[in-house]
Amino acid sequence: MLTSLRKRHGLVFAIGAVCILVNRQGLGPLWFAGVILLMLGGLMRWHLWCKQRPPQGQTPVPVEVPVTGRWQALNGPGTKVPSHTHSHAQTYAIDLTHHPSAEATPPFRPLWPLGRRPHHYPAFGSSVLAPGDGVVVATTDRQRDHFSRTSLPGIAYLYLEGFIRSLGRPRHLWGNYLVLELDQGVYAGFGHLRRGSLRVAEGDRVTVGQQLAECGNSGNSSEPHLHFQLMSGPDSETAHGLPFAWRYRDDDGTEHDGVPKDGTYFTPPQPSSPSQ
């Protein structure tokens, strides 16, 4: 019950902000009510964040790389933990951008263009694969794929947008997403998927290497990329993040077990052929 109430921290925070914005009587009852609600919403969010801090010393779960081809690791647990934040079970989450050798990714520009359409990025439309056998337990794919945020004004907007999205439900932050219950008893989460690209539905049984969806640019995303994480449960607002380990090959051809550090370009050593 208390956890369900804490999950509404965004609504409490938003009501508090509205109270302050519409207040026209100075330091009156409405203003004080708004401040109290803002503090209460922040306290609820902080407590939920603390509850999602995972226990130490967990053994990484071995899974397959959920993409094929050459990708770059960003914001991953190979460099720091938490890689994102404990919120939404993102302690060990990782972001992946696609970089085929023959295709260039649009560069960051300080002022112009403010953003680019997602189809200019090699990651957009790339296959997202099952990292293991399991059952699909949650999906959503109705959110649009927006322009990239690859300029200084775009990054500033991204931070403001990200804060507002974090006050809402998981779909507001992750965009189009899928949660897969793996046979190991853990849950794999995939975020920022392309709208309308889901190849599976809730309740479907999938096998390792099967195509689940396509990489997109929905939700809190600066450019088309895949957000991947393992969780202890299907609800990212209450689950703990879990560490994972991949088998991958870097650009020098050396194979590794673990998670690539930020900035590392890598490929799966034997990419699974995606099933239709």
Automatic annotation (TrEMBL):
Pfam families: Peptidase_M23. GO terms for molecular function: metalloendopeptidase activity. InterPro entries: Cell_wall_metabolism_enzyme, Dup_hybrid_motif, M23ase_b-sheet_dom. The chain crosses the membrane at residues 30-48. Gene3D superfamilies: Glucose Permease (Domain IIA). SUPFAM superfamilies: Duplicated hybrid motif. Residues 162-232 form the M23ase beta-sheet core domain. Keywords: Membrane, Transmembrane, Transmembrane helix. Residues 248-260 have a biased composition (Basic and acidic residues). Residues 248-276 are annotated as: Disordered. PANTHER family: MUREIN HYDROLASE ACTIVATOR ENVC (PTHR21666:SF270), PEPTIDASE-RELATED (PTHR21666). This is Peptidase M23.
